[in-house]
Amino acid sequence: MIEKGAVLPMFYLPPVEYFTELNIYKPDFVIEANEHFPKQTYRNRANIYSPDGLLTLVVPVVKGSKVHTPVKEVKISYDFRWQRLHWMSLQACYRRSAYFEYYEDELVPFYELREQWLFDYNRKLLELLIKLLKIKATINYTDEYHAEYPHLTDLRSSITPKKDSGFMQKPYFQVFEERQGFMKNLSIVDLLFNQGPQSINYL
Questions:
Q1: pLDDT 10s digits, 3-30
Q2: Residue 180 burial class via C-beta count within 10 angstroms: exposed 0-12, middle 13-18, buried 19 and up
């Protein structure tokens, strides 16, 4: 376990703030792999910019028992075709962006193959996003759960869709900004599709 740095949660297509923090703390960060799954967080949702404004994409999970489920035991639900919906939404929102075609071939398998576990799905996506962003970092994971990390910056609950984190963000071009202005802290794919290889400099 690292002695300094940060502990981050495992998110689905994490927001820009997440990668800003990851980039600041690299290589001294770990991903929380042993928490209980908290609901209504970025662990299974992401925000993108649609023609009508903010659009939230949610990965449905199998309804578990009433006891809190360990994050590694959360199963993805395929009761409806959410993958098709997410991919069609990403295409509708970003097909006009400068770099969508640049990245789509690497992302499309995530909307075709059926991964059983949410954690594994997010882990593979995170590995790809780090590669696409050209962040030089190895992902390490926690060995066990700790409620607090006295020596680390704990970011497990600070990056949340429920409240504004106060994350200061410099605007960049967004496809629909003429409609509703700059939207901050969207999913990293918004930055990637709009800024492409320049994304790492932005972070």
A1: 789 999 999 999 999 999 999 999 999 9
A2: middle
